[in-house]
Amino acid sequence: MQCPFCKMEMEKGVISGDRYSLKWIEEDRNKGAIINAFKRGIKITNPWGTNQVETYLCRDCKKMIIDIEDLI
Ligand SMILES: [Zn+2]
């Protein structure tokens, strides 16, 4: 995958979770990590599955791209 910022090729890897799902929560619903544990959000990882999500990294731009098409 090409970095949308610098157009260089990105590195493929995974973000690997621990015991809980990583979640994306809208900025206006964000109440901090402890309360967010009980809130709904888009799950990035699933601890009942591999608990990993395929991720592309650009080290120069310090950006990551995550594909969430079947995780919503
Ligand atoms: Zn880049």
Mean pLDDT level: 88
State the secondary-structure class.
Answer: mainly beta
In one word, what is the shape?
globular
Low-confidence blocks of residues: none
Number of domains: 1
Indicate the multimeric state.
single chain
Order of helical and strand elements: EEHEEE
Instruction: Kindly state the number of beta strands.
Output: 5
The largest sheet is:
3 strands, antiparallel
Calculate the terminal CA-CA distance, rounded to whole Å. 22 Å
Spell out which ligands are present.
Answer: zinc ion
Radius of gyration, Cα only, in angstroms? 14 Å
Q: Which band does the percent of strand residues land in? A: 25-35%
What does this protein structure show overall?
The chain has 72 residues and is mainly β. It has one domain. Helix content is 6%, strand content 29%. Strand 4 and strand 5 form a beta hairpin. The longest helix is centred in the middle third of the chain and has 4 residues. The two termini are 22 Å apart. Bound molecules: zinc ion (ZN). The site of zinc ion (ZN) has 7 residues, from loops.
What is the structure about, briefly put?
The chain is mainly beta and 72 residues long.
Please name the defining characteristics of this protein.
single chain; 72 residues; mainly beta; 3-stranded antiparallel sheet; two-stranded antiparallel sheet; 5 strands; 6% helix; binds zinc ion
